[in-house]
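Q: I'm a student working through a structural biology exercise. My instructor gave each of us a protein and asked us to get a predicted structure, then write a short paragraph describing it. Mine is DUF3995 domain-containing protein. I'm not confident about reading structure output yet, so if you can add a plain explanation after the tokens, that would really help. Here is the sequence I was given:
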Amino acid sequence: MRGRRGTQAWVPPAWVAWGAVVAAFAFAAVSLVWATGSTAGLDTLGGSIERLGRERHPGLLAANAVALVLKILGGVLALALVQPWGERLPRRPLLVLGWSGSAVLVLYGTLQVTTLALVAAGLVVPDEVLSDRALRWRLLLWEPWFLVWGLLLAGATLRSQRLRPA
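A: Happy to help. First, here is the predicted structure for DUF3995 domain-containing protein. I'll explain a few features afterward.
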């Protein structure tokens, strides 16, 4: 594929696309655990989320169920971008979903990581204090996971767009 000036356009490697698949389904597995009412790992979230999770609050269980479905759909989207069967799907909607999903994930992850970094640095005092453990887990794993997943999904979308132009 040629770029604008006749140069070879860069295509992300296949592992980027597969990384988006793994990130989505691994994240879905975590939501499945919490959607079923498990309290495993809730102390890594802290605050009201932890409290509601320990109480098995129906609203939080429902939110986790919705998150589970969205994450599974994100994994299916990533698969559609990397698998041959995805070529049978309408290109434009697939690419719009890929770019939109990656934008939302990157924006959300960036905002969350930035906010938590400001909290960790003592520059922002949150309404709800998190334990040091929860702050570390959220800053180093949970929130960056959205950012990384979004970047991987963007790479998968770009790969698909460049290898199979509309």
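A: Here are two points you could use in your paragraph. The chain has five helices and no strands. The chain has one domain: 14-163. It's a good idea to check both against the output above yourself.
Q: Great, thank you!
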